[in-house]
């Protein structure tokens, strides 16, 4: 799945992935290279959003992939965007 958008955060990859996982009641997968993956599923169990979080200096780079459908925007708080009201 191609990258929809890329974000840069001053928070570490560990902090960013925890935020994404915590706000969406899911878990982050820690990979051998130090990156982390958070999958956000819809009500049917299909992946709607996928986040790959990579360490970048003292912060992190977040690659966001949108598969299909709409899903809440609480994740935006974790990458430095304001949640749309």
Molecular structure report:
The structure is a single chain. The protein is mostly beta strands. The protein has one domain (5-72). The protein contains one helix and five strands, in the order βαββββ. Strands 1-5-4-3-2 form a five-stranded antiparallel β-sheet, with helices on one face. A hairpin with a 5-residue loop joins strand 3 and strand 4. The protein is globular, with a radius of gyration of 12 Å.
Concise account of the structure shown:
The chain contains one helix and five strands.
Task: List its traits.
single chain; 85 residues; mainly beta; five-stranded antiparallel β-sheet; 1 helix; 5 strands; 38% strand; globular
- Give the fraction of residues assigned to helices: 10-25%
Low-confidence stretches: none
N-to-C CA distance: 28 Å
Structural class: mainly beta
**Rg over CA atoms:** 12 Å
Largest sheet: 5 strands, antiparallel
Strand content: 35-45%
Oligomer: single chain
Number of strands: 5
| Biggest β-sheet: strands ordered side by side in the sheet | 1-5-4-3-2
Order of helices and strands: EHEEEE
